[in-house]
Amino acid sequence: MKLIIAIIRPERVNEVLEALYRAEVRGLSLSRVQGHGGELEHTETYRGTTVKIGLTEKVRFEIGVSDHFVEPTIRAIMLAARTGEVGDGKIFVLPVDKIYRIRTGEQDSAAVTPVMVS
Amino acid sequence: MPKAVLNGSDLAWMMTATALVLLMTPALGFFYGGMAGHKNVLNTMLMSMTTLGFSLVAWALVGYSLAFSAGNALLGDLRWVMLNGVNLAPGQALSPTIAPVIYMAFQATFAVITTALVSGGIVGRMSFRAYLAFITLWIVCVYAPIAHWVWGGGWLGSLGALDFAGGTVVHVNAGVAALVAALVVGNRKDYGRQAFVPGNVPFVLLGAALLWFGWFGFNGGSAAASNGLAALAFTNTFLAPAGTMVVWALLDLRRVGKVTAIGAASAIVVGLVVITPASGFVPPIWGLVMGGLGALPSYFAMQWRARLPVDESLDVFAGHAVGGATGAILTGVFAVKAWNTVQNGLIAGNAAQVLTQALAVAGAAAYSALGTFVLLKVIGLVLPLQAGRAEQASGMDITQHGEEAYATGEGAVLVLPEVGAEPRLETVRAQA
């Protein structure tokens, strides 16, 4: 089991969601974050005051997956989030000790296997 | 003198104009509030809004009489204190065809917005109790005398200074007072170390738009009648900010390569300030030219101010004192007697008018600086003028008013009243 954390450009979120859906990755959370990854700062001017904005808006995905889902998930994000410019983001893959599904108490792989709602 | 008669159209226009100018004070709240940061927006907007309470009451009870009754060359007398004798009978010298009650209300809206303008100099740090004392007293001690000097029969009016709607009385006065207030109250604790970024630029644009709308009452109503002079002032109010906006946008393009929203909003306000003293005195084509020329001093004053160590960050001085002085002096250049029936300026052969105008600017600026300085020092003896470092850091909205502008409700736990006892603030704090 792994926890995949991906930091991507906000404008690529829809493409990444679509790619993950096609790869049948169903469970994920995302949050809006700010960060700095070597991209150019932009400047803003308010009358006589000039400010440099050093942080860029990013979106952070967190996806808990069972082992055989790790590769397809990474491939989906990598292809969908890439523009080739500095600032495309990072993917981190972390080991996970335990996973619990709160509703049923299922554990580990069973907890991250999607249930079909009929 | 013919028997004074109420004129229906004059009265109707002046009541409309009064309502228009009243709107300018909340509009200014949006203009300033948008430029304040997220954590100070309510505090900044309330600084404008509360002048409609505290300053307005002081004006009705005392200020109006001191400004507009005969008195002497320096100050009016007390005949209209507590609105005594402010009635429905026409025939008052400055507004012969309308009811004095309306003239009092119209002038009140001027006095109130001038007081609110000063608040731009002390955003983000002034203790609100001290602020309330300040706006209640400033309108009586600083605004009323200067209004008397120029409009109420005082020495600057007698010298022949032209100020149609308040270039010196309102704008030079407010701009200088804001700078002095910034110096006396002191900078925000983290000024010069942290970038202050406007929290809501759309509010700034909304405020500028509403100010322009209200300004038709400000300048047009300063004719005190529904006549040709009002029409001239109205049209100049229409044209000047347009000229300013074009010049301002070109200056912005040259400097940063982009036309900015705050620049456009600032240009509208500066154009209105510049045309205010001239609006009823100059032909429309010169009104337009004045708008364009008027952009230059304020634009460069704002660039220069940003490099100073004084936290006058909403540029009341650069916008209003510099813009008001520019307008007052250019009034002495472009006034044409054929249009205003009062006086010619430089281009019509009366160069001396420029000096009279400069003298009025200097007189208003000097008294405004002195009066504001003394008033704040006196208040400072009784109340702390500036909120503490921790209060400023948490934001003035929460620490001065116990409110948030953009609350999400997350983490807000409802405090239920205890049966039989009012919950006291200290217990609520202890639980939190």
How do the helices and strands line up, and which of them pair or pack?
The complex is a heterodimer of chains A (118) and B (432).
Chain A: E1 2-8, H1 13-22, E2 29-35, E3 42-46, E4 49-53, E5 56-65, H2 70-81, E6 89-95, H3 108-112
Antiparallel strand pairs in A: 1-5, 1-6, 2-5, 3-4
Chain B: H1 8-35, H2 41-49, H3 54-68, H4 100-118, H5 128-150, H6 155-159, H7 167-185, H8 201-220, H9 228-256, H10 261-275, H11 284-305, H12 316-334, H13 337-340, H14 352-382, H15 389-394, H16 396-401, H17 425-431
Helix pairs in contact in B: 1-2, 1-4, 1-8, 3-4, 3-5, 4-5, 4-7, 5-7, 5-14, 7-12, 7-14, 8-9, 8-10, 9-10, 9-11, 10-11, 10-12, 11-12, 12-14
**Proportion of residues in extended strands of chain A:** 25-35%
Runs of chain A in which pLDDT lies below 50 for 5 or more consecutive residues are none
**What is the CATH C level class of chain B, in words?**
Mainly Alpha
The CATH topology assignment of chain A is Alpha-Beta Plaits
With helices defined by DSSP (H or I, 4 residues minimum), what is the helix count of chain A? 3
Radius of gyration over C-alpha positions of chain A, nearest whole angstrom: 17 Å
Distance between the termini of chain B: 72 Å
